[in-house]
């Protein structure tokens, strides 16, 4: 089972659609962690679970989305409402309250993954304005036999192996 995760595309349409098309046969779900700056019903956003970022003004976007894929509870939020640029603690509290195993967020434009208290926190970075990286990034979450692994890729599809992170769920 694989899930495409992207964030902070800030108005890009071709790239959001291209990622969806590139991975249409690989993934069973797609997540956009906010700041698409596109209308909620934009065709490029179809088939994405999506949330509101601080630059999304369409009120149809929820602040938080929860889903379960292959028995894996996932929480999605942009992160601006939880201060993710300075700390993940408020997001950790929300994850515990919602009993999420995987937490997807954006806002900082920094591609990274953290395992905290047995939960996997994924920020796919930004496909438009990356920080702390010379390349726009997105990620793919794989889940099999209770092992979740997130891999990061540049927009042109090259893997960034030093960012990979895995966790085994009980």
UniProtKB/TrEMBL annotation:
NCBIfam families: yfcE (TIGR00040). Its EC number is 3.1.4.-. Residues 1-145 form the Calcineurin-like phosphoesterase domain. It comes from Terribacillus halophilus. SUPFAM superfamilies: Metallo-dependent phosphatases (SSF56300). It comes from the Bacteria. Gene3D superfamilies: 3.60.21.10. The keyword Metal-binding applies. Its cofactor is a divalent metal cation. The keyword DNA-binding does not apply. Belongs to the metallophosphoesterase superfamily. YfcE family. One of its GO terms (molecular function) is metal ion binding. It holds the Pfam family Metallophos_2. Keywords: Metal-binding. It is an enzyme of class 3 (hydrolase). This is Phosphoesterase. InterPro entries: Calcineurin-like_PHP_lpxH (IPR024654), Metallo-depent_PP-like (IPR029052), Phosphodiesterase_MJ0936/Vps29 (IPR000979). The lineage of its organism: Bacteria, Bacillati, Bacillota, Bacilli, Bacillales. Transmembrane segments: none annotated.
């Amino acid at each position: 089972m694989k899930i495409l995760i992207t964030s902070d595309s800030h108005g890009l349409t071709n790239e959001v659609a291209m990622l969806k098309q590139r991975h249409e046969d690989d993934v069973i779900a797609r997540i956009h962690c906010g700041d698409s700056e596109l209308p909620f019903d934009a065709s490029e956003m179809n088939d994405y679970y999506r949330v509101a970022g601080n630059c999304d003004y369409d009120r149809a976007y929820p602040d938080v989305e929860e889903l379960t894929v292959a028995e894996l509870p996932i929480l999605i939020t942009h992160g601006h409402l939880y201060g993710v640029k300075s700390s993940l603690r408020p997001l950790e509290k929300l994850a515990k309250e919602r009993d999420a195993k995987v937490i997807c967020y954006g806002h900082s434009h920094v591609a990274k993954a953290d395992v905290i208290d047995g939960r996997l926190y994924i920020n796919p970075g930004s496909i438009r304005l990356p920080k702390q990286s010379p390349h726009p990034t997105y990620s793919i979450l794989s889940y099999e036999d209770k092992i979740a692994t997130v891999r990061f890729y540049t927009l042109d599809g090259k893997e960034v192996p030093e960012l990979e992170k895995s966790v085994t769920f009980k």
